[in-house]
Amino acid sequence: MNAPDRFELFLLQEGEKKITEKVVSGMSNTSDFILLKEDHTLGNLLSEHLKMAPHVMMAGYKIDHPNVPEVLIRVQTDGSITPREALVRVCKQLVAMYGQLGREFQKELTLRQFADQGENAGVGGGAAGGVGGGQNGF
Hints:
Its main location: nucleus. The protein is an alpha+beta fold.
């Protein structure tokens, strides 16, 4: 009854920004990025890829409370690029990587469907399923 509607956990309200940056004054070349309406899925993905990025000295994330859909990501660089530039580069790399994965998946799915059609065309009126019926796993 007191729980928010589920859509409020992932839809931004009018005027809300998805990402805000706060420069950490006590540490050089360090910023905190607050991502609204996100959870461990994106926080872990970004922090792990940031750790592998050149010029990034430290990256990590935290979630203050499980009922608050907000992730804080801290990034520190060596000074040759800003933390914002590091985050943007990693995001662009991930978009390209997952785009490629999607294209490869669609290609394999199409080939599998084509192969299944060929197998089913050779079956003369038999029942679907069973060995070679196309309904079995990959």
